[in-house]
Amino acid sequence: MRLAFFVWSIVDLAAVVSAKWNTTKFLFAFGDSYTTDGFNISAGVDSPVPGFTSSNGPNWVQFLGGTYNITDTKVFNLASGGATIDAALVAPFQPTVLSIVDQVEQFHQILAPKPSGAQWSGNNSLFAIWIGINDVGNSFGRSDIKSQTQFHATLMKRLFGQVDTLYQDGARQFLFLTVPPTNRAPLILVQGPKVAASITSALADYNQQLVANIKAFEAKHRGVITTIFDTRPIFNTLLDMSATFGFVNQTGFCDAYQNGTPDTNTEIPPCAPVSSYFWLNSLHPLFTVHNILAKAIATKLSL
């Protein structure tokens, strides 16, 4: 897989990015199963990181804080698998899941005071937010939502209320990731073209509103730097050219691997090795995809 060439070709080299990865000393991550590594900040700043991911290996935050960590950046990952922006608006799959509202409250209570081990500042910290996969996925077919556009506007108001809380706590540099094309995930494909078309439309609207709100937030808040990383080109290119990049299946997954495997190269016949698949299960891409994503993010933040 020609990773370096692909990353440089997929990153928008014309984009102006002010937040710099080489001056980032602290990374605070918020999100869902695509982001979580099982870290529990409520147990303390120096709590161990279990490393629980949905990618059968490192996820994008771990690659960013590990493989592509160039300044010994310290990572605090507050993400929670299954998270939505606000559980009162879109219920997660379990009531114990921490929404973005909950995650920001944890930050406010534990990390905003800058305890020993997390003595961050606004100019040396990056706040990464990747949320919306479950918000769109769990709401686009709801009969009680008459206008998806209006509902997304409600979600945006709630989300950026949380971003504003982070700003009030001192955050100044933000990285936002768009929702990837989950309309191409096996979970959606098996439901047929009508469902796929419906969520495709919902995803486009959500991402459009997300970008508009990011720009509005930056314009209204002094000293704020925002970086928008669009995940869609990477996902779509890898899926469209799956054979070129060595993926054996871009529309399905191996049942034997869907709950994870003991090794990143586990092979259970008749399936190919787990690392050869794009999707680990019905919704989550493998660590190989996360690696490419992290490399592209590090590249964009270094321009």
TrEMBL record:
Q: Which residues cross the membrane?
A: none
Q: Is Repressor among the key words of this record?
A: no
Which keywords describe this protein according to UniProt? Hydrolase, Signal
GO MF term set:
hydrolase activity, acting on ester bonds
Extract the InterPro entries matched here. Answer: GDSL, GDSL_Est/Lipase, SGNH_hydro_sf
Record-linked CDD domains: fatty_acyltransferase_like
Q: In the UniProt record, does the keyword Hydrolase occur?
A: yes
Q: Where is the signal peptide?
A: 1-19
Q: What is this protein called?
A: Carbohydrate esterase family 16 protein
What species does this protein belong to? Cristinia sonorae
Organism phylogeny? Eukaryota, Fungi, Dikarya, Basidiomycota, Agaricomycotina
